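re: ur question from the group chat, yeah i did fold both. here u go
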Amino acid sequence: MSNATLVLLITMAILAQVAAVGLFGWQRRRARLQQLNLSGGAAGGEVRPALVLSRQLPEAEPALVAAGVSPAAWSGYREFRIERRAVEDECGAVCSFYLVPTDGGTLTPYRPGQYLTFRLEVPDPAGGSPKTLVRCYSLSDRPRADCYRISVKRVPSPPGRSDLPPGVVSNSLHDQLQEGGTLWARAPAGHFYLTDDGAVPIVLIGGGIGITPLLCILSTLTHRADPREVWLFYGVRHGAEHIMKEHLEGLSKAHPNVHLQVCYSEPRPDDRLGTDYQHQGFVNLELLRRTLRFGRHEFYVCGPPAMMESLVPALQVQGVASEDIHYESFGPASLNQRQVPNTVVVTDPVAVRFSGSGKTVAWDGCAGSLLDLAESQGISVDSGCRAGSCGTCETRIEAGEVEYRQQPDADLKPGHCLLCISTPKTDLTLAL
């Protein structure tokens, strides 16, 4: 036998052994898969969709996520019970309310940063009948299966104006609603929420109680162990107003990619620079330029109007792309990015007709909005945020057109408008 023939025979023997081992392994795998199917188990190809869904859907409903189902939002208002209250700052001005549905049903998942719209009955200080008011409050914790959480700041009378009343709804929540009490809320909504944009670093900027939706975003990112770099710039006057101080510090210590940058504008003598806060002053563009690394960032900004009106346009002037700036204001604020130019000059008054009440009023541009006009005529309109966010003043247009002072946040039905931020473009008939 020649050497070549011997090598060929050895090679053939090795290949035969490899084939036999492969066939044996394939048979074992096939038998295991058949056993899993007979016993009710899922094959590997059937597990992957559930894994994908668990990343795409909020963590709020693990059982439904595993089944590939997302609970639908409820319509109208739903009753919730206050399961727990917790004071969140040293001066006791901020209280968190943990809410569970009284019907025992599932909670609608939400996008981190969204809010709930509440309908509340509050006592009349003058002793009359209780008033029904509508307010929006941001969800302040990551989506969970068992409860929603909102964190509400008690609004005092304006500084130096003790003759003016404090915030009616916030004070009612703090003083009247205890554990076991109930609230009525609409499903989560809002266009300010966390987006999934690959590896782009995230910058969260909050002022005062404006940190609440950012808390939700930050808690979601850390819970998911999101690999993106996250910067939180948070501004308050001093340590007594520092909301969830220990919680924020704990998240920063536990997650190396989270960078906490706290600013005190009026620190107390016992507030320690470098320990309690990192910067003295306000959150502004100079601080961002000094602190952030060069490159693209995605900004989420929420705070009082003064901060919003200065910081958001400054980011735009600095060259930050509009799609990388997300913001929310807790009241009407004049922001360049969201405003719609009003090019119509009213020369001849247009007629606004309220069909339900039979009133027709001339619009000459003096009233601030259609909501203001309706209220000046004694027409009762449900309203909440007065900033185009909650959708409470949505009204059907029977004839004519409107234009907006700023883009609405609330989703509108076709043929409807938000009275609080709109004015008539032509003669107009409203179903009021």
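okk and heres the other one u asked abt
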Amino acid sequence: MSLFQTTHAAAPASAPPPAHSGGPETPRKRARFHSLTVEDVRPLTEDAVEVTFTVPAELADDYDHLPGQYVALRTTLDGTEIRRSYSLCRAPEHRTPEQIAAGIPTRLSVAVKRDEGGLFSTWAQTGLHPGFRIDVMSPQGTFTSGLDDLDHRHIVGIAAGSGITPLMALAHTVLSRSGTARFTLLYTNRSTLDVMFLEDLADLKDRYPTRLTLHHVLSREQRTAPVLSGRIDEEKLRTILDVLIDPADVDEWFLCGPLSLVDLCRETLADVGVPREHIRFELFTTGDEPLRTARPVQVKAGQKTFRIEVNLDGVSSTVESPVDAHESVLNAALRVRPDAPFACAGGVCGTCRARVLEGSVTMTENYALEPDELERGYVLTCQSHPTSDRVVVDYDV
């Protein structure tokens, strides 16, 4: 899943299509890139592959992660730096003390589905091979944090297309960590040929036949059960909730897919009485062209400006931003700190998160921050625009 967001309830989103995630506050590691080697590229469908990276033992702690987190990939194609975010599709590996002592490497895997006209996703299908080295950001995101007590809980995931990616890791984790937890997956695609991880899901069903329930909904392929055929609209979703998945029997909901489906599910679930705090979502695209480098901005003599101060890695940098330029805090920061963290730049992934220490900003979109983070002064710098003469933001908090 690419360019996403996650969240418990509120405004961000993919929230990418924002907001990220839920649960108790999870300490966030500073996002940093390291060059990793591609170990394998495995076809999933005609237009999707699973890419696995080798993580050397000395970087294993940097890439410890929770199910549902994502990484940003950075490379240069046709002379242009490209960044894309993808959810990790495999459950975190458990390292034994012996493996740690022996310096055995670990692995990370993401799934990349070709987007129409997508430069990186097309290259991943045709030009990416084992042995390539790509910059991979340390895992970020809180989509599935806080799920420590899984005994006797029923978790439901609703995914479309590549939205299955974080739910693969989540389903495996839920079922393997508790012998009494149940997981139900409602997964919609156009046809059987478009179903990513089809064999992996079947294997998981064989391993946990009584605790894993799979419902494949195909929009362009007729299935025996009418409720599992056709596009998921409000009427079909309400039917599914009536005959297949009883909301009263579900403890947590995880939604991942395009904004239209996520919004439909959130609104319908809320309407049937599911509390917002039990609905988490992650979106995988905003539809906007991702930021690649800072947009050029020139400050002219006598021009009214905002003064933006950026604290990053213990160093403070200052940049003047013309009021008429209407540039984001991130864009201004990149002009003096090219190492400022970002990935999607669409308000979805939360990588550019920083805390406003002085001054004020307004955010255009927010699909990645929880209400409590907003209350504590955190913002998405890619979506933040100054509303005071001086603004101080801190990426290190």
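fwiw on the second one: Residues 164-177 form the longest helix (14 residues). Residues 154-283 form a domain with the Rossmann fold fold (CATH 3.40.50.80). idk if thats what u expected
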